[in-house]
Amino acid sequence: MKHFPVFCGILFAWAASSYAQRLIEIDLTNQTAYLKDRGRVILESPVCSGRPGHETPTGHFRITDKDINHASSFYGFFGDPMTKQIVVPDADIYKKVPPGLEFVQAPMRYYIQFAPSIGMHAGFLPGHPDSHGCVRMPERNAIAFFQAASVGTPVHVYGRPEPGRQYWASRSFHGFGFPHFAFFGFHGPSPEEQAYKRNRRAAFDHFDYVWDAKERAIGREIDALEDHEDRAEGWRKEELKAQIERMEQVKEDFENRRDAAKESLKRQWRD
Q1: Is 123 exposed, middle or buried (0-12, 13-18, 19+ CB in 10 A)?
Q2: Do 153 and 31 belong together in one domain?
Q3: Count of structural domains, the chain
Q4: pLDDT above 80 (res 81)
């Protein structure tokens, strides 16, 4: 039995040495994370790093904490507690909660912290840097990193994202809006709701394009009449003045018709 403590010490030293050889590298340029063991890549994952203004810090760090069911202390969304619908997908603790809604902390499962309030965790990848500084990865990859890395494992973050470059995106990404999956029972808009909002936005954009063009045409005509009036004399000046007054009335009538048409469009789209 006297050799047992020695054996345990050797085993502990071997295990510590094994983990000491492990290193996480996060390449921001290629939006990829690697777990290396003695220089060999044993895990690799696409990631989503911090958006402009919330860039993921670069440098050499170490894992300081792990939490399988972590939630953000600052960021989340406003949801309707009755319908469990996500209403405002990007919120923080400093924003006023709208009436009837509640603030829900953003889930950050399989969280591996390596800098103050910065860590790796499971999350949505839209194909470009989009987080508030953390490093998101697909959940199955986050689980693998969480299980393979330990507190004290070195983390090296380097590079910078390339503006305009398309990176790996989660399959549920639709190019806009909030991802359609549950967060603490809350859910984002369905594909049908997203299509409705797309069509609604297109209808209002077309309305503004058409009516703005008409309004600019009336404005140009009034400007031309006023320019002629400035240079005219006698009866011609009075005639132009009368024409300007008539065009001002046309403009007022046009604005009333536009307001009525806009209200009709809103009723059509249940706005």
Answers
A1: buried
A2: yes
A3: 2
A4: no
Could you give the percent of the chain with pLDDT greater than 70? Answer: 79
Q: Label each residue of 58-109 as H, E or C.
A: CEEEECCEEEEEEEEEEEEEEEECCCCEEEEEEEECCCCCCCCCEEEEEEEE
CATH of the domain at 99: 2.40.440.10
Helix (H, G, I), strand (E, B) or coil at 253: helix
- CA 136 remoteness from chain centre: 12
Tens digits of residue pLDDT in 88-130: 767 777 778 788 877 777 778 899 999 998 999 998 898 899 8
Structure tokens at 240: 């132009």
Is there a single domain that holds both residue 137 and residue 260?
A: no
Percent of the chain with pLDDT over 90: 36
Residues 36/22, Cβ–Cβ less than 8 Å: yes
CB proximity list for 64: less than 8 A, separation 6 or greater: 113, 114, 151
CB-CB contact of 148 with 35 (8 Å): yes
